[in-house]
UniProtKB/TrEMBL annotation, chains A, B, C:
<feature type="domain" description="HSF-type DNA-binding">
    <location>
        <begin position="130"/>
        <end position="226"/>
    </location>
</feature>
<comment type="similarity">
    <text>Belongs to the HSF family.</text>
</comment>
<keyword id="KW-0238">DNA-binding</keyword>
<dbReference type="InterPro" id="IPR036388">
    <property type="entry name" value="WH-like_DNA-bd_sf"/>
</dbReference>
<dbReference type="GO" id="GO:0003700">
    <property type="term" value="F:DNA-binding transcription factor activity"/>
</dbReference>
<dbReference type="GO" id="GO:0043565">
    <property type="term" value="F:sequence-specific DNA binding"/>
</dbReference>
<keyword id="KW-0539">Nucleus</keyword>
<dbReference type="InterPro" id="IPR036390">
    <property type="entry name" value="WH_DNA-bd_sf"/>
</dbReference>
<dbReference type="Pfam" id="PF00447">
    <property type="entry name" value="HSF_DNA-bind"/>
</dbReference>
<feature type="region of interest" description="Disordered">
    <location>
        <begin position="47"/>
        <end position="76"/>
    </location>
</feature>
<dbReference type="InterPro" id="IPR000232">
    <property type="entry name" value="HSF_DNA-bd"/>
</dbReference>
<feature type="compositionally biased region" description="Low complexity">
    <location>
        <begin position="47"/>
        <end position="62"/>
    </location>
</feature>
<protein>
    <recommendedName>
        <fullName>HSF-type DNA-binding domain-containing protein</fullName>
    </recommendedName>
</protein>
<dbReference type="GO" id="GO:0005634">
    <property type="term" value="C:nucleus"/>
</dbReference>
Length: 470, 470, 470
DNA sequence: AGCGTTCTAGAATATTCGGGC
DNA sequence: TGCCCGAATATTCTAGAACGC
């Protein structure tokens, strides 16, 4: 039955068939008429149809498929190891009878239908890795006899008849609500990196390619689903940050980068680095409920809080005492509140810290007042950049609120300390100690949240290109 | 069709009907015969059932529902504006005819059934926020005449007949695969914060509550889907910590805070801060098997282990050698064992470390002995605080066990090192180096696990209120 | 009745029949007519079904199986001595008549059925270890004639008819509430390490595999219940690491451990510690797409990136400037690319760093080239370990790629810096400073990702034993 | 200690809508 | 306009935690 197809997949996955090396066929019985015609060759070079028989009994049921619901033996069941994945470390794709995704009806009609043929699995092997359901069904669809609608050829997926595909094939391979099913298909295609290269237009014949796909169709099974929010988010943020950075009048780079670093030697990076923060790790959603207002994510709020904490400990370790603004803006109160301080949005340019800056940061606003102020700002503050009266302080507005805060916090690590150290007549050694400890702590803090301090600007450009092409 | 019901929802969402203020009805047509009988009152105080006639006719149909699969027009289709949400800024809750989500079978039977009425939007209001599909369908299910299976009463969802619900209702309201559909329902319930309070297992009648639900059923529509169990966990922990902190008699603050800090200057925080640790980040479950005994979670155990590791590396970096107690309590052995050392619960007051403290920490208890001791403590130690004979050491008892351990570990960072440094005739510089490295490492470690050093107590109270209202 | 079956199991468990050595049969009486036809061979090499002549006859019987629900005497009762275990030191697997656990669900038919024969213990052997009830019943269910519903073949459990299984089999083998009974089954399956590899949802046919299961069905009886995600994950990783470490030719331990530590004093650990990294915390999936290639997870990639970042900041803090290889391998470019540098897989042995190592690390490969190289490696690199020409550099191949990289990165913290410091004529103090900051940062970084630096090897052995017994 | 049962949560993929370019 | 992607929810599998025995 379907076991041939599956065992074929298993052999491929086992490595017995080197992808792209051995010309081999993936025989798979036709689901409708039962004439098991192997449709798609898994060869690297040829695409030969094979032959097979058997299946006639199930033919009738699949003529009008899924009327009763489930039991028809047309589609393949697959091995999904971890969530939504097919296969696993030591398991293999196994064949079954009923269409797994057909007919989600409630009645247990399965028993009335043709019995499932999971036992028809002749392969005991285990696929070496899980395969997302989509890729499996896609491969299945391509290896079934669906040449009328879709075809795999020359490492490209040709969709000959999108309406027919949507009407006749998609419901059999994918679970959906029958609404905009082709759109959903395309979203999944995007997730797995397929790009439409031909057939612009609604339901016109089109074709898709994937940079990770070889002519061997089994290569599709190795494509990795795109993760949310890593590279693309980074790219977007970088572009955002660049826009922000470029819009700053005084383009003279001010030190930021890793705290504790720049005061002893040349900075490893500059203010342009504001565009070099990139979020990696698990998905970090960007939500902007109010237009123009950047609502920091929880993770970012944590970062901010931890930065303040790092201030505290680092400053204390260096014998500098607590900076005022840290004392006045306890992180916990802000943890779930959004923006951090009344000074939010102001980017300090170290090196020429205004004398009253420390006090300015150490506003006497109560937390309640701060919260209220934040709410008001979220509503009323315009997006435009306004320059503060102090030439060294730029009020970025609420638009840049949160990102700017990160910058502020980092840049404040050192200069504020320097100022305070000068005021307190502390030894340079103590200040240096502060820098060292802060370097370790802040770097780790950023990293622990998946925030990466990026390369220098020249490299960043390259990075952007990479991301753009990725 | 259902537009009356939906427009009613829209009015509520618009705020025209203040939830819990105006007693109003949610007219909704009977699904079968279409007679718009108002079923459930949306009043705040009363929950009067409407004149629900017309159920006998539908009884017959539900005897064998969805034999053919899909087409019955009982369930509501909706317009989901933003993803999976119902209503929102620019879209409205709309009523439709055929059940879009009933039986998503492979055959496009939907087209044969009653045509979907997505365009049948008669309401022009804009709900102030989108409603997740689940909440909408849940509310719909509760306001429909499904008293036989499920009921909304006293701000609680009563499931009278789980099997019947799964068999007869769920397929109509939710798109599912009929396989473990009740489980899926429960997953969604969890996502939205519902908790089962009665009816353990057995397909027995059960009930769910939600802390954000008022008696007004429309309050369900305002429940927010869980993101990652952060704020709620933080709230719970903070309240726990407060309870703990409040039970401490001597409120006089002792230094704790960031390691490496207090030996050079005034403490940045005090013992009251023991109640200011809060967990943020991914969910950190709290388990207390014995009343009054805080059983450290796995994550917290990891923290402790990492603290020991930080001890090790920091001490080594400072040339101090490994402190004895670290050697005697290797972290891995304790990783799954619970509390850390025989000295648990004792908070060291730096500056006047007892002479035997280092040895006391370096107990020769085997791990087995320690475990046994821990178990005994979990049973027998009272919750009250007892003051040690040493005026500088407070035995917090096992009540505060784990939190105190964190404190101990941190506070021990320095003084123990000082003692050992004195014993070893190490230079003050080496000791200072230790403190510096430890400060960076430990601070980062805490932050990396989502542990936050919180604000002072007064501010913490405010935070609690905030969280309580959130 | 079933006592023969049970005594057979007992013999196997006693060790009289070494699993996997002697081909033996598990005679088990046909459930209906009681004719003890050996059905499943317990052979190690072959998994031949016995002379299943009576298959057709039983087929008829299973046409209407369990009409009354429970009462047939086919299933085994058992005596569970200690909680939930079957067999063990003091108890034995016992055979009985009626299904004690049959259908606790809706109808209490059990009482009407044949009385349970728990006392019917006819076997005198003592299994060397207790068998959890679940595994026993599962094995029993698989060796009974339930091919219609469930089948054991090729070290895989095939569930052909989940609804039928839930309805007809589960009540006979497991005490359950019939409510979400399949879900409970699956929870138990998870506990014992079974993973669903086929049949996503929908009461569709599915199959399970278990990494500890051999083709010999009796291997199921030796599966250990999972303790928690930590230890099992740690155990898996540790075994992986051990495999890795053991495969290294020169077993002479080289320092690794915490960076910045070993250059001043005796190392707290050695290269053997490579096997002591253990992942705790949230799940860290292990995926190797191509056999022999370790595909780093996103989390691990982040670790690597953060390590590079730590290099950068630490080096800068120490006034060392950026190490070349960090500049040449910007993390972001590698974040989603898999392995890190062209030097991947090479483990640097500190203390005798090759002169050109820094340059070697600072290869001039462009990122594109690196990527291409990585892809090629994933396909073509053999698994065998090859020793580099430099006696101090071991090329672990791609097999150990990622883990080795962690080691490399750590070990490179110091020696590479030393080399560079020497080249740059930097002061020892600056180098020392680097070490200190790096110690704090790297330690925290590892901890933040749940990576633990383990104890020394001797202790590790103990840990392994603990994990093994756990 | 270990297992079974249940409730809850984590993680990954799937589905769907909207928006940017 | 149409392709691509962000974001949120939905679905499924797996695992953590608590409780009872």
């Amino acid at each position: 039955m379907d076991s041939d197809y599956v065992s074929q997949l298993n052999r491929i996955l086992d490595g017995n068939i080197e992808p792209g090396q051995v010309s081999q066929t993936l025989p798979y019985p036709n689901e409708i008429n039962g004439s098991s015609t192997s449709v798609v060759s898994v060869s690297a070079s040829t695409h030969s149809l094979g032959t097979s028989s058997s299946r006639s009994s199930s033919a009738a049921s699949s003529q009008l498929p899924r009327q009763g619901g489930v039991g028809d033996s047309s589609a393949v069941t697959f091995s999904s190891s971890t969530n939504g994945l097919i296969g696993g470390e030591k398991t293999h794709v196994t064949a079954g009878g009923a269409a797994t995704y057909g007919a989600t009806g409630q009645a247990p009609i399965t028993e009335d239908a043709a019995p499932s043929k999971l036992a028809d699995c002749k392969t005991g092997q285990t696929p070496p890795h899980p395969v997302p359901e989509f890729l499996f069904q896609l491969t299945k669809m391509l290896t079934d006899d669906n040449l009328e609608y879709i075809e795999w050829k020359k490492a490209t997926i040709f969709v000959h008849d999108p309406p027919g595909l949507e009407k006749n094939l998609l419901p059999r391979y994918f679970r959906h609500s029958n609404y905009s099913s082709f759109v959903r298909l395309q979203r999944q295609m995007n997730y797995f990196g397929f790009r439409k290269i031909a057939g612009k237009g609604k339901m016109a014949p089109c074709s898709y390619v994937n940079e990770h796909a070889k002519e061997d169709i089994s290569s599709l099974l190795y494509i990795k689903r795109k993760k949310s929010g890593v590279s693309s988010t980074a790219a977007r943020l970088i572009s955002q940050q660049n826009r922000l950075a470029n819009s700053i009048p005084g383009a003279k780079p001010a030190v930021m980068s890793v705290p504790g670093v720049m005061m002893q030697q040349a900075p490893v990076s500059n203010f342009g680095n504001i565009s070099q923060f990139a979020l990696s790790g698990s998905s970090i959603p960007i939500s902007h409920q109010m237009p123009g207002v950047y609502q920091p994510t929880l993770q970012e709020q944590i970062i901010l809080a931890q930065l303040q904490q790092a201030h505290t400990s680092a400053a204390s370790a260096a014998g500098l005492g607590l900076p005022q603004y840290v004392q006045c803006a306890p992180m916990m109160a802000n943890l779930n509140q959004g923006l951090l301080t009344a000074d939010q949005g102001q980017v300090l340019y170290p090196g020429s810290l205004p004398e009253n800056k420390t006090n300015s940061l150490a506003t006497t606003l109560s937390i309640q007042q701060q919260q209220q102020q934040q709410q008001e700002q979220q509503v009323s503050v315009p997006q435009s950049m306004v320059r503060n009266s102090d030439p060294n302080v730029f009020d970025l507005g609420v638009v840049s609120s949160e990102r700017a805060l990160l910058t502020q916090q980092i840049s404040a690590f050192n200069p504020a300390m320097q100022v305070q150290a000068a005021n307190d007549n502390l030894s340079p050694q103590a200040t240096a100690n502060y820098g060292q400890v802060a370097a370790g702590a802040a770097s780790a803090l950023y990293g622990s949240q998946g925030l990466q301090l990026g390369p220098a600007r020249s490299q960043q450009q390259t990075l952007e290109e990479i991301l753009r092409n990725a």
